[in-house]
């Protein structure tokens, strides 16, 4: 009887440890059952993105490119992030960083930095404001999977705020990044 109680307690302890461990890690697939591989490219394009801080910046197009860092992994190391046709303003990349897609579809950015030069005119005088924004494990949006959309996957960007690095005092404390990026490579992307 004593052994049954001991075994019962061990089973309960093992169950508790499994519950604390949480769900299994996510894996990205490029087709049903076909995991992404280390080195596979990722490329996405957005039309009409914006960075809204103290001053709003609207860009006609933005692209992001990189490659997955491990087989079945959920992290992509970025090689480029571009914002173009932003009116009189300029958005340039300082550091690319990495994207991570969690099992619930949350997309996070870590280590990316962009510099923003805002060119405006106040009472006929040209004013330039320089801001730098960075990500640090920042939730920037959600993956809309191919299996759900029935087509190419998308990333809906709606960041709660990109942190501002010390620059111009006219910069907002943080900047909200919004847009919808269509993932052109791979053509199919799901998280399992």
Your description of this structure?
- With 192 residues, the chain is mainly beta.
- It is built from 2 helices and 13 strands.
- The longest helix is centred in the first third of the chain and has 20 residues, at 2-21.
- The protein is elongated.
- The N and C termini lie far apart (44 Å).
> Nearest-angstrom radius of gyration?
21 Å
Overall geometric form: elongated
Would you report the number of β strands? 13
Low-confidence stretches: 1-24
Q: Proportion of β residues?
A: over 45%
Q: What pattern of helices and strands is seen along the backbone?
A: HEEEEEEEEEHEEEE
Query: Total helix count?
Result: 2
Number of domains: 1
Distance between the termini: 44 Å
Helix content: 10-25%
The secondary structure category is mainly beta
Biggest sheet character:
10 strands, antiparallel
Mean pLDDT metric: 80
What would you say about this model in short?
With 192 residues, this protein is mostly beta strands. It is built from 2 helices and 13 strands. A hairpin with a 4-residue loop joins strand 7 and strand 8.
């Amino acid at each position: 009887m004593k052994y049954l109680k001991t075994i019962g307690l061990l089973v309960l302890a093992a169950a508790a440890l499994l519950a604390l461990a949480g769900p299994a890690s996510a894996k990205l697939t490029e087709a049903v059952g076909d995991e992404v591989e280390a080195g596979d490219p990722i490329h996405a394009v957005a039309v009409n993105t914006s960075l809204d801080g103290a001053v709003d910046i609207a860009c006609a197009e933005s692209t992001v490119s990189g490659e997955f860092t491990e087989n079945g992994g959920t992290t992509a190391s970025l090689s480029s992030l571009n914002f173009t046709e932003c009116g009189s303003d300029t958005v340039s990349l300082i550091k690319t960083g990495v994207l991570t897609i969690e099992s619930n579809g949350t997309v996070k950015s870590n280590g990316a930095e962009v510099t923003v030069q805002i060119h405006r005119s106040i009472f006929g005088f040209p004013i330039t404001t320089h801001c730098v924004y960075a990500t640090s494990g920042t939730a920037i949006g959600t993956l809309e999977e191919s299996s759900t959309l029935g087509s190419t996957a998308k990333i809906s960007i709606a960041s709660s705020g990109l942190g501002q690095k010390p620059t111009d005092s006219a910069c907002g404390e943080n900047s909200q990044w919004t847009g919808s990026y269509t993932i052109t490579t791979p053509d199919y992307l799901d998280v399992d």
